[in-house]
Amino acid sequence: MEDGKDFGTVIRINQTRYPTVRSLQFFLIFIVLGLLVSIISMNTIKYFGVGSAAPVASSFNIVQPGVEGLSDIDSWISPSSNLLHSMSDQELLWRASLVPQGKEYPFNRVRKIAFMFLTKGPLPMAPLWERFFKGHEGLYSIYIHANPSYIADFLPSSVFYRRQIPSQVTEWGEMNLCDAERRLLANALLDISNEWFILLSEACVPLHSFTMVYDYLARSRHSFVHSFDDPGPYGRGRYNKNMAPKINLTNWRKGYQWFEVTRELAVKIVKDKTYYSLFKKYCKPTCYVDEHYFQTMLSMESPNLLANRSLTFVDWSRGGAHPATFGKYDITEQFIKNLFENKRCLNNGQPSFCFLFARKFAPSALDRLLDVAHNVMGF
């Protein structure tokens, strides 16, 4: 009986231990499989890139929509054909402020001009611009900021087709007008090939051929922001002393809204928070923030990079709150020649013409402009 008890006890002990040994075996197999999966994953990342192992964040699909991974340089530098995105202004400005750390690019970067149209709706001068751009594909980009309710009807063959960016309502003299300009700059900065950024309106026209405009900007060492010290009531008289000490009265500048800036200054504009907050808080109508914000900020931050003049001709000689508008019967060959022949300016210290563009032109002027464009403007 004692021997039987001992034998039974041994059986029960072995039955008790067997599940424990079996569990330990499964645990060891699980660890080995986990290590194998980790090794395979690391080799996949090493040889195929991070993008193969993880999806791209949808918030930044504007970089390259539809790309599963960013495993080669083309997927980073190729601009999107679709300008629509769901980023907020805060996300967009942050994304646009990211810049390469080195001055050299590991690819053949062809520098482009970003033409940024700030408009409420249609572009009546589009046929003239179409002729201006023809034959220069790959050297320019187009961006349109219109009222959100406006739906463009450009044909797929047009250079303006699907070039609207996500926009918001703008009001004359309000900070949201500068918001729109920063929004245009930020969207244009997402294309790493854009080097020069020109702000235009629906009433602007080119005065010279694309080749001449491109060469002028490529040679210049300066950005063209109209900025000057106006001691009168419409200059210093708009200054708010609450902006001090960051912005003092002696720093206050005024100028035309229509500018051309290099990529370096465009990045500074979209990154700015200090000056922006002061202008938003203290430059209320009748301060007209679009005449002072960029002009003051850039003259303080990068005065050596500014030509302190605009490349867009505007006629204020008739007086009033708005410049002269040119209609059908104003347009002659001599009229256009006078816009760029009667005045000379310095570019890199050398005499040159002052203006590449002009405004304001009424829709009725289009046909006459098309008639004289070849002989006078060169396109």
From TrEMBL:
Top-level lineage group: Eukaryota
GO MF entries: glycosyltransferase activity
Coiled-coil residues: none
Annotated transmembrane regions: 24-42
Compartment(s) of residence: Membrane
Keyword Cell membrane among UniProt keywords: no
The entry's keywords: Glycoprotein, Glycosyltransferase, Membrane, Transferase, Transmembrane, Transmembrane helix
PANTHER family found in the cross-reference section: CORE-2/I-BRANCHING BETA-1,6-N-ACETYLGLUCOSAMINYLTRANSFERASE FAMILY PROTEIN-RELATED, CORE-2_I-BRANCHING ENZYME
Name this protein carries in UniProt: Uncharacterized protein LOC111479954
Gene name linked to the record: LOC111479954
